[in-house]
TrEMBL record:
Membrane-topology descriptor: Multi-pass membrane protein
One term under GO cellular component: plasma membrane
Source superkingdom: Bacteria
Coiled-coil segments: none
Protein's name according to its UniProt entry: Glutamate-aspartate carrier protein
Biological process annotations from GO: carboxylic acid transport
Gene that specifies this protein: gltP_2
Gene3D superfamilies: Sodium:dicarboxylate symporter
Entry's localization field: Cell membrane
Length: 401
């Protein structure tokens, strides 16, 4: 086992988890604490890792003009791919019609009512990204605010240059410490993956597919459509990487994303794979990927598109073309503000449904199978981060020699 690569170990853990879940079903839930421990360790390292890696990555670029150019391309790719993902999700949902002829008598509510969030305006969304107290943002784990603060520090270090060389060295060394801690934590990844997958399979089994099968299938088709329509084009014609090579190397990231359902939780693996297997320069990966784990939610965009159309179809509500255009705009903004953590999309879905004037009662049922669809969308999120980073690396010649 020691000679196996981390990818192989994670794959074995994933397979063992499925088998244990199918064999022991709900009796396997006693291993849930192991999975929770893995998630806790991930949560422990994410904030300091993101904070230090972004500062180090931006400061390592060294040239403020180059930083402006690279930053514009990274953010541009993230926004464009999010918009296109929402459009693809809408098209797939229109074709699949997951809510047509839905047995509304089967709609149930969870024991705990879900509260709808207050819809945010564009200005409120932007203002919410700026920390009034950076230390509070770090303490509470507000990732988008931590990133904004880290970006400002990195830009300031880049502008000041040699005047703050000692600070830059301290940041770089602290970043190395975090990467070593991350490496230690990642050694338990196969066991955490096995526990999380076993509990998911054991808890849900295959029975849930009876009622919401078409709804779940639509999500998976939407996600795969984004991969094969948009990502393959970017990989082949912009990043100029062999498709076989890409899908072979990205598998490890997918397995962790499936099990954790967290873009932020998958970030340590995403960084390592992008830097070591795809040979992207550290300064670009350290800058692009942590930002992507927070604002580049292509999978969530597909999820919102399919879910909103599903609810509209269930209740016989015809959304006009203008409403759907507005929906794409709102989805892009909400996706950018969606934290890269498990289950963050549930409350935001209710907010979106409320804003669109659609009923939210069916969310009680969707919550029950949310993890099953969140798995594929998290995998899509992290894939989009890597794809956009590879494209920028090719354009800016930022591959290691």
């Amino acid at each position: 086992m020691r000679k196996l690569s981390m990818s192989a170990k994670v794959f074995i853990g994933f397979g063992v988890g499925i088998i244990l879940g199918l064999v022991f079903q709900k009796n396997i839930l006693f291993v849930q604490p192991l999975g929770d421990l893995f998630l806790k360790l991930i949560q422990m390292i994410v904030i300091p890792m993101v904070f230090l890696s972004i500062i180090s990555g931006i400061a390592s670029i060294g040239d403020i003009g180059k930083l402006r150019r690279i930053g514009a391309k990274v953010i541009g790719f993230y926004i464009i791919t999010t918009v296109l993902s929402a459009i693809i999700g809408l098209v797939v949902a229109h074709i699949m019609q997951p809510g047509a002829n839905f047995p509304t008598s089967q709609i149930i509510n969870t024991d705990e009512p879900i509260k709808a969030a207050e819809p945010m305006t564009v200005s409120q969304t932007i203002l919410s990204m700026i920390p009034t107290n950076p230390l509070e943002a770090l303490a509470t784990g507000n990732l988008i605010q931590v990133i904004v603060f880290a970006v400002f520090i990195g830009i300031a270090i880049t502008i000041l240059g040699n005047k703050v060389s000692n600070v830059k060295r301290v940041i770089d060394e602290a970043n190395l410490i975090m990467f070593k801690i991350t490496d230690i934590v990642m050694k338990v990844t196969p066991y955490g993956v096995a526990a999380l997958v076993a509990c998911s399979v054991g808890q849900y089994g295959l029975s849930i597919f009876n009622i919401l099968g078409k709804f779940i299938l639509t999500h998976y088709i939407g996600a795969f459509s984004v991969v094969f329509i948009m990502y393959t084009f970017i990989i082949k014609y912009i990043a100029k990487i062999s498709l076989k090579d890409f899908f072979t190397k990205i598998t490890e990231v997918w397995l962790v994303a499936f099990s954790t359902t967290s873009s932020s939780g998958t970030l340590p693996i995403t960084l390592r794979v992008t830097e070591e297997k795809f040979n992207v320069k550290d300064e670009l990966a350290a800058f692009s990927l942590p930002i992507g784990a927070t604002i580049n939610m292509n999978g969530i965009a597909v999820y919102y598109a399919v879910t909103v159309l599903f609810v509209a179809q269930v209740y016989g509500v015809d959304l006009t073309l203008m409403q759907q255009v507005m929906f794409i705009f709102m989805t892009t903004l909400i996706s950018i503000g969606t934290p890269g953590i498990p289950n963050s999309g549930i409350v935001l879905t209710i907010m979106l449904l409320t804003t669109m004037g659609l009923p939210i009662e069916i969310m009680g049922m969707i919550v029950g199978i949310f993890r099953l669809i969140d798995m594929i969308h998290t995998a899509l999120n992290v894939t989009g981060d890597v794809v956009s980073t590879l494209a920028v690396a090719r354009i800016e010649h930022m591959y290691k020699k």
